[in-house]
Amino acid sequence: MSDLDQLLGAVRAMPTDARLADMDAAVMGGLARRRDRAMARRSLMLAGLLAIGIGWAGSIVPGAPAQAAPLPIGMSDYAPSRLLGQ
């Protein structure tokens, strides 16, 4: 038997580290987190592309001509300037 066989036999006879028993759960948890991050990135990219596409299509499609509002925006009939007749 060579020295290498003796060394491998000695390593085989040694007790295993207790942390190795939890390694499967840690690896699978890491894979799940990585998959979730990748899915979140893809969803965010898809939402961004969809928003760009809708904005681009909205800028190309002609809309109704712009008209001024009869009252300034946010001006209520109960505003102090309206009540005082200004």
Briefly say what this structure is.
This protein has 86 residues and is an all-alpha fold. The chain has one domain.
Could you describe the 3D structure shown?
The protein has 86 residues and is mainly alpha-helical. It has one domain. 62% of the residues lie in helices and 0% in strands. The protein has three helices and no strands. It has helices spanning 3-13, 23-60, 80-83. The relative contact order is 0.04. The mean pLDDT is 84. The chain crosses the membrane at residues 43-61.
Q: Which sheet architecture does the biggest sheet show?
A: none
Any idea how many domains? 1
Strand/helix succession: HHH
Number of helices: 3
Q: Give the helix proportion (percent range).
A: 55-70%
Taking all residues together, what is the mean pLDDT? 84
Beta-strand content: under 5%
Return residue spans where pLDDT drops below 50 for at least 5 consecutive residues: none
* Rg from Cα: 35 Å
Distance separating the two termini = 109 Å
Shape: elongated
Structural class determined from secondary elements = mainly alpha
Which key terms come to mind for this protein?
0% strand, mainly alpha, 62% helix, elongated, 86 residues, 3 helices, single chain, transmembrane helix, transmembrane, membrane
